[in-house]
Give the backbone structure.
Amino acid sequence: MEQTVSFAGKGISMSEKQKKDLVLFFFVIATVSLALGFSDGLFSNYFRDVYNVNAFQRGLIEFPRELPGVIVFFLISAVSFLGDITLAFIAQGIAAFSLFVLGFFTPSFGVMLIFLFTTSVGTHLYMPLRDSIGMSLAEPDQLGKRMGQFGGLTFACLTVAGLVVFFLFRFGVFSFLHKTKLTFVVSAAFYLLAMLLLIKLKLDVGQVRRKREKVKLIFRKEYKYYYLLAVVFGVQKQVIMVFGPWVLIETLGQQVDTIVLLGIIASTLGMFFMPQLGKWIDRFGVKKLLYADALSFIGVYLCYGLLAQSFNSGALATVGFPVILTCALFVTDRLSSQMGIIRTVYLKSIAISDADVTPTLSLAMMMDHVVSIIVAVTGGIIWISIGSQYIFYTVAALSLVNLAVAILVKEPRKAEFEALANGD
């Protein structure tokens, strides 16, 4: 039995088996998202509570955490003959083992950095594979819709995980001061479940989806704007992941339950925002959404800079409404970061060949992580030497590059989407 969807006046058939494969991948996304919800957003508080790091050290820690993003292209290239699904399975295994170690032990700072690195290897290895697998399973005419649904499901699972983490930290079941960091153990268990689901997915699609040839370094002039967006996002990402939360943690003294609660709010909003964003991509096109992406980053970081400057000068109190406003920016920034699906769909729409997608996603990740490492270290120096507000002002200025790209890119033509739908 087949379901036929209409696109550009033509029918695209999706068999029941393909639908089941897609549903199974939704379950993979759910379990990985739950694993992330129990670990990834909590590392800043883990570093402070267990190792008492300052802003400069927090920036330095990003080197081992972001380095896997630099080398992930070479990792995928070296073992690409295994296929995307097998590599995704291996990625979950690496993350699971590393988090089990961090959960059951409190290693020295140096040893912790090693397992932080290997955890990051697992999560970063999975990132381009997730998009590649997801787009290969999705209907060609509904890429935006499916990518939005993937993002919405991710946020839904992050919301569930966040609620559990919030209450368990609030009531003392979870604590980074305990010998066993149960939140990391739970995260590792979800990664193990994701491995089992990926085995099932591999068995289902492995016979009909051929393994890719060895990934080669591809740098095409046709993708220049995508590369540029990736580099700028490397700068923006450090504000999203490190310096934005650090305003709340260090400047405003907020604890882990507050950060988790804000994550819950962002995830809840994202459950509705991401599917709608996917529909907007299909309806309005990539170019218009790139404008929205650019303006959101510029606005958020200007506001962050003004607030940070006011807190540092004493013009604003570190309690009351200014804190609420900073929390609102934190949530908005988290939502803005998920607009990365716009860039992914843009790449898919301009790709010369489907074989270019995974290596280009991986190369872009390498680029943004090289920049991320530089920004993490220099940002920490700027924070403690001249003031945190200058980090945000600089990133707001750099985000003008997003706006320039939105102006320069051409909207993919309808004929190009027809060719994509037909597999040409």
User: Anything to note?
Assistant: The first strand starts at residue 2 and ends at 7.
